Amino acid sequence: MEADRVERGTRASRAFAVIAAPVLVALVTLPWWWGDPGWMRLIAEMAYYLALAQLWNLLAGYAGLVSVGQQAYVGLGGYALFYLTGPANVNLYLALLLAGPFAGLIAIPVSFAVFRLRGAYFAIGTWVVSEVFALLASLILVLGAGSGLSLTVPILRQISSDRDVRDAVLYLMSLAVAALVFAIVYLLLRSRHGLALTAIRDSEPASASLGVNTFRTKFIVYLVTAACTGLIGALIFLQKLRISPEAGFSINDWTVVVIFMVVIGGIGTLEGPFVGMLIYIMLRELLADYGTIYLILMGAIAIAVMLKAPFGIWGWVVQRYNVQLFPVGRRLVLTASKASER
Amino acid sequence: MNWLNILVQGGLLGGFYALFAIGLSMSFGIMRLVNIAHGDLIVLSAYVALIVTESTGLDPFLSTIVVVPVMFALGYALQRGLLNQTLSGGLLPPLLVTFGISIIIQNGLLQIFGAYDHRLKEGAIETASLQLPGGLAIGAYPILVFAVAVFAIASMQLLFYRTRLGRAFRAVSDDADTAELMGIDNRKLFAMALGIAMVFTALAGILFGIRTIFAPSAGPIRLILAFEAVIIGGLGSLWGTLIGGVVLGIAQTIGAALDPNWQILAGHLAFLAILVARPSGLFPRTRD
Amino acid sequence: MSLLETRSLSAFYGDFQALFGINVSIEQGETVAIIGANGAGKTTFLRSVAGMLPTKPEMVIFDGKPIGQLTPHDIVRLGIAMVPEGRRLFPSLTVEENLLLGGHSERPGPWSLKRVYELFPRLRDLRHLPAPALSGGQQQMAAVGRALMANPRLLLCDELSLGLAPVVIRDIYQCLDAIIAEGTTVVLVEQDINRALDASTRFYCFQEGHLALTAPTKDFNRAAITAAYFGL
Ligand SMILES: Nc1ncnc2c1ncn2[C@@H]1O[C@H](COP(=O)(O)OP(=O)(O)O)[C@@H](O)[C@H]1O
Ligand SMILES: [Mg+2]
């Protein structure tokens, strides 16, 4: 039974790899053979959302930390980049490298407060923390207070003085960060902590009584997630060129839609976030002319999925067809390739 | 800084927050439900009142006679139709379903009413104030709101400790399985509980809409304020919720006295400080 | 016609099967004991009858009607009340509120607050105390009183003697006579074999989810019971 599933899973994932590999190559080389800035921006956005969804899935789906305050780290990463490259006059690439660790560092004191809350109260607690950062950003003059900061042209020239090259670099960085995040999540789940995480997901009291250090595992997951989210935030706003407290710490943009993606795609699986991200982008692009209808639709689908198929669309597929695209040993490069399917 | 003034104004502001919090506190107390859509339901109540006042010319206070039953019915239906299905599945289902409801309400309002600010106009009472000796001026409206909050909590107290329904609420909150064995239909009772919670939510929404301009996006911050009042006061404690609101109001007023931009921030920081120092709130219920 | 009948009653906790095709038949006015070792499925049996575990309609027949599909709150209204294992009083309610809650279904019948206080006079003095303030024996009385407030035709008692001193157990079992005198059919679940057999007219012995033995109490054979009890 078990062997059969692994066998089939491997066949499915091999077939998937056969399709995915050329798509991946096409994606990575896209700037050289097509280079349409609009498409590159959309694909980059998909890569960022995919990465955010993977991270939230790790946090909530595996570690049981249902945070609705991840926008805090998107904003912190973005602000770190803008402050460092602007007022502090640091090199752009160095600033990008620092943004993630900075967010991770801030997550340490934050975790002391929010880890005192359980379940849904943890969720709202993380949200309050994010509001605190948003309010602070709107008060600090050197961060542009309520109106925020912009990236100036000289800073962008550090990438390249050629606009097309710049677009291509930003695009490739988005693919790279999605791949990196996928690799981190994947390796974390395969590590000793991964076993602990699965145990926690299945029953926290039981795993605690069996000697799993649930606190330390959760703490590590929280910090790693915060740092990765910070890096993604820096890249997102590098592409947007402007950051404000409202945009940087937006719960709707950086957490709510991400949660919907994970839930709809399938929480607690590595494939779910792909599926959910694709559905979100598709709905949004198709219904772009009808205001926020796509958000209402996402909300309704998320409710329906939660009630009727709690393991999401991917969970349903697994149950029905018994496939797994990322069995043990699967490589991280698939991240960007799946994102390309649209 | 005039400390007496800050205490009085902040305390009265706390009445508002307590009123925001009652519905949240009740649905947590009885169903262990943390309703993420709570703030949006407050704002939705204000919009319902807006429709009523604009279509009938009723004054906002009187619109209560329509808004309260409407919101009661909505709460009852939400619990029966959706939320009861989330009760047995752990933490995520109720959280995400109410999250979905929150987004649907916010964006539904946005589609219908646009992103504009609205307001309910009540007239003279909005600006009337009482002059007290010592140069203290207290707004009549905050006093009214505070009185409503006290009245609301007192009536909850009566409901919980003096009626058959309240007894059933407490029993279900203690032990839902055994309550079923006593002949209580938990699903109906939960629907009733969210209905009643929405009565207070409706009152909060109307009073809020008179005092402040509101837009479809106004819900989440109301949820956070309500949540802070509940946690500061101690989960499941009715009068604790009022005190939590007052503490939050005073913290905000102190912040605002230092710099008007610091009002909300000061409240959040006070909340986090209390959380770190006393995770179970100032007045925790001894049990649970 | 039997008051309660189970037909091939099976019960599951997830994938784990706790009862295997139990056939039991209890007549109106009988007092029946169910005995068995810890984990034999006695509590599961009572919970299935009371509607707390999912069962097929025909698996539980009460008063000639299938009730397996009904919810616990429907079943109370038909006249089945339970004194749950471990008493399970509502801790934030007073003793009297606990009793009143037992009468939530408002079934008519001989039992009222007044009658319950006559049966357990101590409870009247303690009625305004929160339930957890009572001693174990007093709590058990309150739990029995609470079940009686539903005016049941069938009273299910799960381990009345659990954790109580022998004197207290004797008191409680004495009160049972008054309950039986009202014509109430009683099912007693006990691990204490002698206690249960003394109070009953017939017994069933469960073993690992199966029915191992049934006989009238008067012609019971200790060796047979021991064999059934321990599965020898
Ligand atoms: N909630 C539960 N979940 C899973 N298994 C249970 C549960 N309750 C009881 N069981 C199992 O069902 C079997 C019967 O238990 P129970 O009916 O409580 O036995 P008894 O009351 O005779 O001691 C035991 O093996 C027990 O471990
Ligand atoms: Mg038992």
Protein model, in words:
The complex is a heterotrimer of chains A (342), B (288) and C (232). Chain A has helices at 2-33, 37-62, 71-85, 92-114, 119-139, 153-157, 163-190, 192-202, 204-209, 214-240, 245-248, 251-265, 272-286, 293-308, 312-321, 334-339; strands spanning 149-150, 242-243. Chain A has a domain at 18-251. With 342 residues, chain A is an all-alpha fold. Chain A is globular, with a radius of gyration of 20 Å. Chain B is mainly α and 288 residues long. Chain B has one domain (3-118, 129-277): ABC transporter involved in vitamin B12 uptake, BtuC (Orthogonal Bundle), CATH 1.10.3470. Chain B contains eleven helices and two strands. Chain B has a two-stranded antiparallel sheet with strand order 1-2. In chain B, strand 1 and strand 2 form a beta hairpin. Chain B is globular and about 60 Å long. The mean pLDDT of chain B is 91. Chain C has 232 residues and is an alpha/beta fold. Chain C has one domain (4-87, 152-230): Rossmann fold (3-Layer(aba) Sandwich). Chain C has helices at 42-49, 72-78, 95-102, 113-119, 121-125, 136-148, 166-181, 193-199, 222-230; strands spanning 4-13, 16-26, 31-36, 60-62, 65-66, 80-83, 154-158, 185-190, 202-207, 210-216. In chain C, strands 6-7-8-3-9-10 form a six-stranded mixed β-sheet, sandwiched between helices. A four-stranded antiparallel β-sheet of chain C has the order 2-1-4-5, with helices on one face. The longest helix of chain C is centred in the C-terminal third of the chain and has 16 residues, at 166-181. The radius of gyration of chain C is 17 Å and the shape is globular. Chain C starts with a strand and ends with a helix. The model of chain C has no long low-confidence stretch (mean pLDDT 92). The chains are: A mainly alpha (342), B mainly alpha (288), C alpha/beta (232). Chain A binds chain B through residues 60, 64, 66, 68, 112-113, 116-117, 119-121, 123-125, 127-129, 131-132, 135-136, 138-139, 251-252, 256, 259-260, 263, 267, 291-293, 295-296, 298-300, 302-303, 306-307, 310, and chain B through 34, 36, 82, 85-86, 89, 91-97, 99-104, 107-108, 110-111, 220-221, 223-224, 227-228, 231, 261-262, 264-265, 268-269, 271-272, 275-276, 279. The structure holds adenosine-5'-diphosphate and magnesium ion.
